[in-house]
Amino acid sequence: MADLGVDSVDKLKAKLPQLEMELNDIAKFKDFYQFTFNYAKDPGQKGIDLNMAIVYWKIVLSSRFKFLDLWCRFLEEKHKRSIPKDTWNLLLDFATHIDDNMSNYDSEGAWPVLIDDFVEWCHENHLMATQPHQPQQQHHQLLQQQLANYQPQIQSMQVQQQQQQRNISSSYQPTSHSANINYG
């Protein structure tokens, strides 16, 4: 938050309109979206914990992915593992290119298996109903509400990550070796 020049959730909320304007640029949003992967994942892990990924997606993709609620439901029901970086990154491409009934989805394309499984699950369950896009004002209000709702959960997860890092660091004790070794 310091990089944004804010030091509280209230100041962050006040800055949201300016940030939203910047994120309307597709390239900037993609950079931001990809940044959130490394920000959200536990240090030393390759993927994001599923629950953390869902929280971040609900914040970041709320108005950009018409199937977000279905995606999250699918993951909670069918997928219990972490989310790898390629799935994280390609979900944004999927979200921006898929049509309302998913008829333009190419199962032979280079999509991660998890996205293939999601599309198949939606078709099997006839779940391609779309959610209407919200006007900018409604979207801004929704972002503020979601930020307030998810802030405690994000902070709790970040505290857990920090505690895990401290536990790992404190459990690692380098062994001392004799300095009188002859390599000779």
Describe this structure as you would to a colleague.
It comes from Bactrocera latifrons. This is Defective in cullin neddylation protein. One of its GO terms (cellular component) is ubiquitin ligase complex. One of its GO terms (molecular function) is ubiquitin conjugating enzyme binding. Neddylation of cullins play an essential role in the regulation of SCF-type complexes activity. The protein has 184 residues and is mostly helical. The chain has one domain: Recoverin, domain 1 (Orthogonal Bundle). The protein is 61% helix and 0% strand. The protein has seven helices and no strands. Helix 2 runs antiparallel to helix 3, helix 2 packs antiparallel against helix 5 and helix 3 packs antiparallel against helix 4. It is globular and about 45 Å long. It starts with 8 loop residues before the first helix and ends in a 13-residue tail after the last helix. The relative contact order is 0.12.
Poorly predicted sequence stretches spanning 5 or more consecutive residues: 130-135, 175-179
Order of helices and strands: HHHHHHH
Percent of residues in β-strands = under 5%
**Beta strand count:** 0
CATH superfamily: Cullin, PONY binding domain
Mind sketching the topology for me?
Elements: H1 9-23, H2 26-40, H3 50-60, H4 68-78, H5 85-97, H6 113-124, H7 136-171
InterPro entries: DCN-prot, DCN1-like_PONY, PONY_dom
Biased composition (Low complexity): 154-173
Organism: Bactrocera latifrons (Malaysian fruit fly)
